[in-house]
Design brief:
Layout lengths: L11 E2 L1 H8 L3 H9 L6 E2 L5 E4 H10 L14 E5 L3 H14 L4 E5 L2 H11 L3 E5 L7 H10 L7 E6 L4 H9 L4 E4 L4 H17 L4
Parallel strand pairs: 4-5, 4-6, 6-7, 7-8
Antiparallel strand pairs: 1-3, 2-3
Helix pairs in contact: 1-2, 4-8, 5-6
Length: about 200
């Protein structure tokens, strides 16, 4: 389902536009707002408006399908590891698998956050032991962001610690790999994410 063209670039919506997006009646939208479920503000003229980010957060908090996470174009992958050789190796093996993947690289948690916010990748290959902001915090921030529930986070670490695995999976990571990670497994997990994205199914 595609977002109506007239609404595609808008940052705030009327209750009637939200109703069109959600395929419900305007009265339903007004009830959601009155109950405090959906955040809205009033214009100087007293009309209700719903910010795009608030609408997306509302829909995702209730696992409701929506048009804003429709994506086109090649799969976007973010590789995060403080070892340059590892990031380049993973980038190369993914490009061998599919040359159309759009791949960004970060060597610390701060840069990872910036790239994620700017490019909203579909898959994040995430080392847990990073300088500054560690991988656990990066994962938490991703999953709490708008659209983050759709991002496939593949955690990779050199530490054989069951508590680390438990913690990162609880934070929302989809997979946990031990270094040295099997490159065939990395390719397969990214390939699966690409297929789910193409078919619109959840991870």
């Amino acid at each position: 389902m595609a977002i109506p063209e007239k609404l595609e670039s808008k940052k705030a919506f009327t209750t009637f536009e939200v109703a069109e997006i959600c395929d419900v009646t305007p009265v339903t939208i007004q009830n959601w707002i009155d109950k405090g479920w959906l955040r809205a503000y009033r214009t100087p003229g007293g009309h209700r408006r719903v910010l795009r980010d608030d609408l997306v957060s509302f829909l995702e908090s209730r696992n409701m399908p929506h048009v804003f996470n429709d994506k086109s174009g090649p799969l976007r992958v973010l590789i995060v590891d403080d070892e340059k050789e590892i990031t380049e190796m993973i980038r190369d093996i993914l490009h061998i698998d599919n040359s159309e993947y759009e791949i960004d690289i970060a060597h610390d948690g701060f840069r990872a956050g910036v790239l994620y916010a700017n490019y909203n990748p579909d898959v994040v290959l995430l080392d847990l032991m990073l300088p500054g902001i560690d991988g656990f915090e990066v994962c938490r921030q991703i999953k709490q962001s708008s659209g983050g529930s759709e991002t496939v986070v593949i955690a990779i670490t050199g530490l054989d610690d069951p508590e680390h695995k438990k913690r990162i999976l609880e934070l929302g990571a989809s997979h946990f790999l031990q270094k040295p990670a099997d490159t065939a497994q990395i390719r397969e997990l990214v390939r699966q994410a690409s297929m789910r994205r193409a078919t619109g199914t959840s991870s």
